[in-house]
Design goal:
Protein name: Integral membrane protein
Oligomer: single chain
Number of helices: 6
Structural class: alpha+beta
Radius of gyration: 24 Å
Number of strands: 9
Distance between the termini: 27 Å
Largest sheet: 5 strands, antiparallel
Number of domains: 2
Length: 284
């Protein structure tokens, strides 16, 4: 493998980016859990996981190279995230597979080689990996939407008021009614709480069931959040949930294209989130 300098090496892969494929960190676009993500790439779901290196060959073709040197890939990603240069060049012995295409959208390209394109298919090759259609909606887009909320939690949270949350209710202030005596004042009816959303109820029910019967590895993941809280990510058939253990939850559904459904804490959500955090997979 090579870097992205101007000299073209016919045998090199010019590395553009990399991602981890481990029980606690995997491209959710590939599946609801770690075994499903591995199956999408025809990989065995080994506990140590893999690194996915995305790059171009000397002809510009897109390739995803699977390596078993997870630590090396993790160091490269951490370095890039800090704005540091890092030459990611896994040894040939660490390479597990070379898959045509990229499972994720990559906005950059290697200099000095043709524009990114899928390699010419050969007999018996699998179809090239490709990111999901950004204009469509389905499980992959739903999971990508949940990824974005987890990444930009503060911005999403600021847009949501208490009266917009599923299950929330607002009690009007009847402490004073001008021109009406205490004896004449009639009790004003309080608004009924919003009816629960059937899809959200199903998602929360299935999330609770994870506490009784362990889900596939990676269905529930926990990561750092400010002020001692945790960011929880849970997925299931047709739904994704992102939550903070000290705050609310957001639910996305296959049946509700592009909709983000906020769930207020209420009496039950805090306990559910605390229990899910206890069974969640965490980054090493």
């Amino acid at each position: 493998m090579g870097g992205t300098d101007d000299a073209v090496d016919e045998d090199a892969l010019y590395v553009l980016t990399a991602v981890l494929l481990t029980p606690a960190q995997f491209p959710s676009v590939l599946g609801d859990d770690f075994p499903a993500a591995c199956a999408a790439l025809n990989l065995e779901p080994c506990a140590e996981g893999y690194g996915l290196v995305l790059g171009q060959d000397s002809e510009g073709a897109r390739w995803t190279v699977v390596v078993d040197d997870v630590s090396l890939v993790a160091v490269a990603i951490a370095s890039w995230d800090c704005g540091m240069e890092y030459d990611l060049s896994p040894g040939e012995r660490t390479m597990i597979a070379a898959l045509p295409g990229w499972p994720l959208a990559v906005a950059v390209a290697a200099p000095g080689v043709p524009a990114p394109h899928d390699p010419a298919p050969e007999e018996g090759d699998r179809p090239p990996l490709a990111p999901p259609d950004p204009d469509g909606w389905g499980p992959a887009q739903r999971r990508l939407g949940a990824d974005e909320i987890a990444l930009q939690w503060a911005q999403w949270r600021q847009q949501i008021g208490d009266d917009e949350m599923i299950g929330a209710s607002a009690t009007p202030d009847t402490s004073d009614v001008s021109g009406t005596s205490e004896g004449d004042r009639k009790e004003e009816p309080k608004p009924e709480p919003k009816a629960g959303h059937a899809g959200v109820r199903r998602a929360l029910k299935e999330a609770r069931e994870y506490l009784e019967s362990a889900p596939p590895t990676g269905r529930v993941r926990s990561s750092f959040a400010p002020n001692g809280a945790r960011t929880l990510r849970a997925d299931g058939p047709g739904w994704s949930m992102v939550a903070r253990t000290d705050d609310i939850a957001f639910v996305l559904l296959d049946d509700e294209p592009c909709e983000v459904l906020p769930v207020g804490r209420g009496p039950e959500l805090p306990g559910l989130l605390e229990s899910l955090d206890k069974i969640a997979v965490r980054p090493a």
